[in-house]
Write a structure and sequence with these properties.
84% helix; structural constituent of ribosome; Ribosomal_bS20_sf; small ribosomal subunit rRNA binding; mainly alpha; ribosomal protein; 83 residues; rRNA-binding; single chain
Length: 83
């Protein structure tokens, strides 16, 4: 276990960041599932805007890889356009 003050603070801050990152990642995955299940095109288009924004935010913060965000956005856009 860490003994230095700075190491103890780092442990606390890392845990707080980990919890927030997990929350954001999980809520984005849930939104993606909701979008995939959508059948109404107008509702899906509105949801696509929100999901794209969430994915961009996750990629910007390096929670997910930027290419994964781009691939997800592309697939979801194709899905919405096919509705």
């Amino acid at each position: 276990m860490a003994n230095h003050k700075s190491a103890l603070k780092r442990i606390r801050s890392n845990e707080a960041k980990r919890v927030l990152n997990r929350y954001q990642h999980k809520s984005t995955r849930t939104a993606i599932k909701r979008l995939r299940a959508a059948t109404d095109k107008t509702a899906a288009q509105e949801l696509l805007k929100k999901v794209s924004s969430m994915l961009d935010r996750l990629a910007k913060k390096n929670i997910i890889h930027k290419n994964k965000a781009a691939n997800n956005k592309s697939k979801l856009t194709k899905l919405v356009n096919a509705l």
